[in-house]
Specification:
Protein name: EAL domain, c-di-GMP-specific phosphodiesterase class I (Or its enzymatically inactive variant)
Structural class: alpha/beta
InterPro entries: Cyclic-di-GMP_PDE-like, EAL_dom, EAL_sf, GGDEF_dom, Nucleotide_cyclase, Rev_trsase/Diguanyl_cyclase
Shape: elongated
Keywords: Membrane, Transmembrane, Transmembrane helix
Number of helices: 17
Number of strands: 17
Distance between the termini: 68 Å
CATH architecture of the largest domain: Alpha-Beta Barrel
Largest sheet: 8 strands, mixed
Strand content: 15-25%
CATH class of the largest domain: Alpha Beta
CATH topology of the largest domain: TIM Barrel
GO molecular function, one term: cyclic-guanylate-specific phosphodiesterase activity
Radius of gyration: 39 Å
Number of domains: 3
Length: about 500
């Protein structure tokens, strides 16, 4: 740190010396040229305006005034009007010129000072947060770049207040500003520079240098823990703040300031969105996020490129050891050689609103396959997964009805699979839809049973035909507690004439 400061000071001193040398050289050259071209009666005396104006640019009004006076004196009483005849200048002539040089130097410098001041004010506005009296991320990038050039090591800490929008909308919009200002003040520290920045209303960024006070990081942890653990009293309200904190340590890597800042923001994307936590940057998380963005773009083209396809997982009736039906499972072969798992692309499809297109693809192709099997004398039931949003969408339900009507497929052979969590998504509408589908002849199965919010508590209210016990329980069925729970599920369902399917039976012991 000290070495970089000395280096910067030496560079600044050298620059000042170079400027002085340049002005002296220009003045001497101009004076020399005036003398050897015959004196001040010729136009060459005006060459001195160059160093005068340049000095105004370098040092402002004082610099312009000084060089103007010196230049006026050098081509003043000692400089002949006409060198060849030896005629000297009239004092009024050279004094007037010296005053003109001085005034031009002074006012040029003053005007440049004023312009520079306006530029500084505009730059300050560009580098300041529109919400708080703090520098913004543009200033942060400049400071990071400067620190990299100075070979400094530092940590960048991104603090995201994840519930600030709710406080602004439902409690008090002015309270938001007081809350963030108060937190920023608590996080100020002695690093010899301002190092708390603002991004938008709900994010603060800190630069913590290695030369900061030793206990500063401990202070940050105390402040953040206090804010996220205890309610903050402001304007008569007790507010609990949710903070996601991301930390990236810079140790001289060859990366840009923007990348450094983004790595801290990537770090705080870990954990649940509304839960407080402190997270360090993890390169695997960045790679995963990059992969997800890449997949998101490609997913929108997957149907058009004919990359999605269906596989059919058989359901085995353990009484007669025969196939009693199948479940249609969508798979994605991206670019012909890269298989993307449904656990990755289905959540993305739901998030970006593409799940309906995928569901239509599955329904269309599964019913087409059922029709082909039926034409070959194979009558088999097929289970098709459906999301909550689709089942409460009348347009989707009507489209499904029309698709079935256009094919040689019985509704009773189609099993609509709904996850237990999906039923909790919108209980009343979902149960109404399920009753409607049963009346139309479809079978209804509850998928992933035991992992959601209802379980046995509200099972009696759900109109279902088939209960699917989640693989989680089957994998642990050797434990007495799990085994008794599974037994309870089966007995309950059989009591009411329902069918039970166990997912993921892979060993003889499990069977």
């Amino acid at each position: 740190m000290m070495r970089s400061l000395i280096k910067r000071a030496n560079e600044k001193t050298r620059l000042v010396h170079l400027k002085i040398l340049l002005i002296i050289l220009l003045v001497v050259t101009a004076v020399y040229f005036v003398y050897f071209t015959g004196g001040t009666k010729k136009v060459y005396v005006h060459l001195l305006y160059v160093p005068i104006i340049l000095s105004s640019l370098f040092w402002g009004s004082f610099g312009g005034l000084t060089v103007g006076m010196v230049s006026g004196l050098l081509v003043g009483p000692l400089m002949p009007l006409d060198v060849s005849s030896g005629i000297m200048q009239d004092p009024v002539n050279w004094i007037s010129r010296m005053l003109a040089f001085s005034l031009i130097g002074f006012f040029t410098g003053h005007m440049l000072d004023w312009i520079n001041q306006l530029n500084r004010e505009a730059q300050d506005r560009n580098l300041s947060s529109p919400f708080y009296d703090l520098p913004n991320t543009t200033k942060l990038i400049f400071d990071i770049e400067s620190s990299i050039d100075s070979e400094e090591h530092f940590k960048i800490i991104s603090i995201k207040l994840t519930n600030l929008d709710g406080i602004e909308k439902y409690v008090d919009s002015e309270l938001v500003f007081d809350l963030v200002k108060n937190l920023a003040k608590q996080l100020e520290h002695s690093c010899g520079r301002k190092a708390v920045y603002s991004y938008g209303k709900d994010e603060l960024i800190l630069l913590v240098f290695d030369d900061c006070v030793e206990d500063y990081e401990e202070k940050i942890n105390r402040v953040l823990k206090h804010y996220s653990t205890f309610p903050i009293s402001l304007a008569g309200y007790d507010i609990r703040v949710s903070l996601k904190v991301g930390i990236y340590e810079y140790r001289g890597e060859d990366i840009s300031p923007t990348e450094i800042y983004n790595k801290a923001r990537i770090a705080h994307e870990q954990g649940e969105h509304r839960e407080s936590g402190v997270y360090y940057y993890d390169v695997s998380l960045e790679n995963k996020r990059r992969e997800m963005h890449d997949i998101t773009g490609a997913l929108l083209e997957s149907i058009r490129k004919d990359e999605l396809f269906l596989m059919y997982q058989p359901k085995i009736d353990i009484v007669n050891n025969k196939i009693s039906g199948v479940e249609a499972l969508v798979r994605w072969n991206r670019n012909g050689n890269n298989f993307i798992g449904p656990d990755m692309f289905i959540p993305i499809a739901e998030e970006i609103g593409f799940i309906k297109e995928i569901s239509k693809f599955v329904f269309e192709n599964a019913t087409t396959q059922m029709e082909m099997w039926k034409n070959r004398g194979i009558d088999i039931k097929c289970a098709i997964n459906a999301s909550a949003k689709e089942l409460i969408d009348k347009d989707f339900i009507n489209w499904g009805q029309e698709t079935i009507t256009s094919k040689n497929v019985d509704r009773s052979d189609i099993e609509i699979e709904i996850t237990e969590r999906a039923i909790a998504y919108n209980d009343k509408k979902m149960i109404k839809t399920m009753n409607y589908l049963k009346e139309r002849g479809y079978q209804i199965s509850i998928d992933d049973f035991g992992t959601g919010y209802n379980s046995l508590m509200s099972l009696g209210e759900i109109p279902f035909d088939i209960l699917k016990i989640d693989k989680y329980f089957i994998d642990r069925i050797d434990r007495i507690q799990i085994r008794e729970l599974v037994k309870l599920f089966i007995e309950y369902s059989h009591t009411f004439g329902k069918i039970v399917i166990a997912e993921g039976v892979e060993t003889e012991k499990q069977l």
